[in-house]
TrEMBL record:
Family (UniProt): Belongs to the class-III pyridoxal-phosphate-dependent aminotransferase family.
Any one GO MF annotation of this record: alanine-glyoxylate transaminase activity
The species this protein was found in: Triticum urartu
PANTHER family assigned: OS03G0338000 PROTEIN, PTHR45688
Class of this enzyme: transferase
Domain of life: Eukaryota
Cofactor(s) the protein needs: pyridoxal 5'-phosphate
Keyword terms, alphabetized: Pyridoxal phosphate
Any matching Pfam family: Aminotran_3
Protein name: alanine--glyoxylate transaminase
Catalytic activity entry: glyoxylate + L-alanine = glycine + pyruvate
GO cellular-component term (any): mitochondrion
Enzyme Commission no: 2.6.1.44
Length: 467
């Protein structure tokens, strides 16, 4: 890992600021003067007092001190277009006044008590959240994060079914605690600790998968895992509709209905991990699983649920929810009134400002422009056969995979680091991910505009041209 970071630093150091920079869309906001510590001082403290496992983008880490809607500002007042949204988290835009007001009003009245007492904030938000769910999914358990939500969901599936075996997908990421680390299926995120009872099915990846977009062929592996790797009975199946950390990988069409059917025939529950893909991000639907025409037994969520507040949730049916009454299940901060007041405000903003519709319209426009960029960059330079191997995703959960050879699909791991530096220098912040770290993760706030999309693609165009 250290060698990889040093390599990244050498590459980044070679990046030069481009001369012809596209013009960023106009924006009527003046950031407050910043008189806090510099990036250098913060980096020094971080190195001394925070975990050495923390990493950052860019050769010189940015000191982000303010945000407004789809823009961020550094310590010098420079504006950046945020195309990552704190890892698909800031769905309504930075410092949305309605959300800030809801949090502030609740904080002025009561920051925390305990769920042992009654308070309307948690009940109001649970009711509003349940109204967004299909079928009989209407009982809500609040948590503090996506990892915690997935941990709880897996435990509930095991308790309800009396089985231990969980099936997840290769290349998936579901969290970094003991149970969720077992369900996660990338060595990059796994430590050598006990991770029992999880089987990883072949990933139904239309781009890199063995069967291309044929969901039926991938689903056979789920059946075979049940028949050959378990007693024939399983606790559950967990998946994302679009893998986030895995590199914005869309599940092959037709896969989820078949996988759900196989798991349910084996007595298992189906868990939809909506931590990144949920809350209107895909545009066409509020939840990612809805794009596949399935209804899960348990849904987990976080990130967009609170627009940046530490908040997660598990939603299930009344019958399944009963399993937690066998003992005492308790979460000190799950359902905290300050967080749930903010969460309710998020739902209201999403609806009132029609951000799902915006994600659908502008997301489709952005994807079309990215596909145009893919066609343009067929032969960028002598040593690269192709740079953009795939453009995928939906709404504002889009991925652009960089390769050095389009036929071999060789990951362009070094090139993406250089491109990200170029884009940052031109005022665009974007994420990256995938097993090989060669996929742009484009997950902006849902208030992203067509002008922002044009600026983003124009900047990426120049960055790729300089490789």
């Amino acid at each position: 890992m250290l060698g990889a970071r040093r390599s990244f630093s050498r590459l980044a150091a070679a990046v030069r600021t481009p001369v012809d920079v596209p013009r960023m869309p106009a924006f009527d906001h003046v950031p407050l003067p910043y008189d806090g510590p510099s990036a250098v001082e913060i980096a020094r403290k971080r190195a001394e007092f925070l975990s050495p496992s923390l990493f950052h983008f860019y050769s010189k880490p940015l000191n982000i001190v303010e945000g407004k809607k789809q823009y961020l500002y550094d310590e010098h007042g420079r504006r950046y277009l945020d195309a990552f949204a704190g890892i698909a988290t800031v769905c309504c835009g930075h410092t949305h006044p309605d959300i800030i007001d809801a949090i502030t009003a609740q904080a002025n009245r009561l920051q925390h008590s305990t769920v042992l007492y009654l308070n309307h904030a948690i009940a109001d938000f649970a009711e509003a959240l349940a109204a967004k769910m299909p079928g009989d999914l209407k009982v809500v358990f609040f948590t503090n994060s996506g990892t915690e939500a997935n941990e709880l969901a897996i435990m509930m599936a095991r308790l309800y079914t009396g089985s231990h075996d969980i099936i997840s997908l290769r290349n998936s990421y579901h969290g970094n605690a003991s149970g969720t680390m077992g369900a996660t299926a990338q060595k990059n995120w796994k430590f050598n600790v006990v991770q029992s009872g999880v089987h990883h099915a072949v990933n139904p990846d239309p781009y890199r998968g063995a069967f291309g977009p044929d969901g039926e062929k991938y689903a056979r592996d789920v059946k075979e895992i049940i028949e050959f790797g378990t007693t024939g009975h399983v606790a559950g199946f967990i998946s994302e509709a679009i893998q986030g950390v895995g590199g914005i990988v869309e599940v092959a069409p037709g896969y989820l209905p078949l996988a759900y059917d196989a798991v349910r025939k084996a007595g298992g529950l189906c868990i939809a991990d909506e931590v990144q893909v949920g809350f209107a991000r895909v545009g066409s639907h509020f939840w990612g699983f809805e794009t596949h025409g399935v209804i899960p037994d348990i849904v987990t969520m976080a990130k967009g649920i609170g627009n940046g507040i530490p908040l997660g949730a598990v939603v299930t049916t009344p019958e399944i929810a009963q399993v937690l009454t066998r003992r005492s299940y308790f979460n000190t901060f799950g359902g905290n009134p300050l967080c749930t007041a903010g969460g309710l405000a998020v739902l209201k903003v999403l609806d009132r400002e029609r951000l799902q519709e915006n994600a659908f319209i502008v997301g489709a426009y952005l994807k079309d422009r990215l596909r145009g960029l893919q066609e343009k960059h067929q032969s960028l330079c002598m040593h690269l056969t192709n740079v953009i191997g795939d453009v995928r995703g939906a709404g504002f959960m889009l991925g652009v995979e960089l390769v050095t050879d389009r036929q071999l699909k060789t990951p362009a791991k070094d090139e993406i680091c250089q491109a990200m530096e170029h884009m940052k220098d031109m005022g665009v912040l974007v994420g990256k991910g995938g097993f090989y770290g060669n996929v742009f993760r484009i997950t902006p706030p849902l208030c992203f505009t067509k002008e922002d999309a044009d600026f983003f693609v124009d900047v990426m165009d120049i960055a790729l041209s300089k490789l």
